[in-house]
Amino acid sequence: MAFERVCALSDVPEPGALRVELDDVDIAVVRFEGEIYALEDVCSHAEVPLSEGEVEEFKGAPTIECWLHGSCFDLRSGAPINPPATEPVPVYPVRVEGEDVYVDVSVDDSLPAAASN
C-alpha cells in the first residue's frame, strides 16, 4: 500500500466533502458522523464532481449525493443506492494520523480482488 497525505482533517467539513486533485485521479475526501472516506470524485452516471453534493444518511447508509441527478453512493463501497446511476465509483483506503488524512489511491476497494493463480 502506498498511502499519501492528501489534506488536514480540519480541511474536511463535518458533514461534507473536500475535492483533492492528485496526479492520477481526483478524489473526494468525505467526513460523516466522525468517519472519513475517500472515493473517486466523479459520478459514474453523469461525470460531475461528487464532492459538490450533499453528504447524508440515505436508506441506512452513509452516502454522498450527485447534485445533478440525485444518485446517492454508499461511502463505504461506492455502490449506487438509487438510480439513475447503476455503476459503482472507486473507493480508497483511508488512514488518519493525528490531523493528517492519508489515502491509498493505488488500491480500488470498490471491486472484489481477483483471485491469484
From TrEMBL:
<dbReference type="InterPro" id="IPR036922">
    <property type="entry name" value="Rieske_2Fe-2S_sf"/>
</dbReference>
<dbReference type="GO" id="GO:0051213">
    <property type="term" value="F:dioxygenase activity"/>
</dbReference>
<dbReference type="InterPro" id="IPR017941">
    <property type="entry name" value="Rieske_2Fe-2S"/>
</dbReference>
<keyword id="KW-0223">Dioxygenase</keyword>
<dbReference type="GO" id="GO:0046872">
    <property type="term" value="F:metal ion binding"/>
</dbReference>
<keyword id="KW-0408">Iron</keyword>
<keyword id="KW-0560">Oxidoreductase</keyword>
<dbReference type="GO" id="GO:0016705">
    <property type="term" value="F:oxidoreductase activity, acting on paired donors, with incorporation or reduction of molecular oxygen"/>
</dbReference>
<dbReference type="Pfam" id="PF00355">
    <property type="entry name" value="Rieske"/>
</dbReference>
<keyword id="KW-0411">Iron-sulfur</keyword>
<protein>
    <submittedName>
        <fullName>3-phenylpropionate/trans-cinnamate dioxygenase ferredoxin subunit</fullName>
    </submittedName>
</protein>
<dbReference type="GO" id="GO:0004497">
    <property type="term" value="F:monooxygenase activity"/>
</dbReference>
<feature type="domain" description="Rieske">
    <location>
        <begin position="4"/>
        <end position="103"/>
    </location>
</feature>
<keyword id="KW-0001">2Fe-2S</keyword>
<keyword id="KW-0479">Metal-binding</keyword>
<dbReference type="GO" id="GO:0051537">
    <property type="term" value="F:2 iron, 2 sulfur cluster binding"/>
</dbReference>
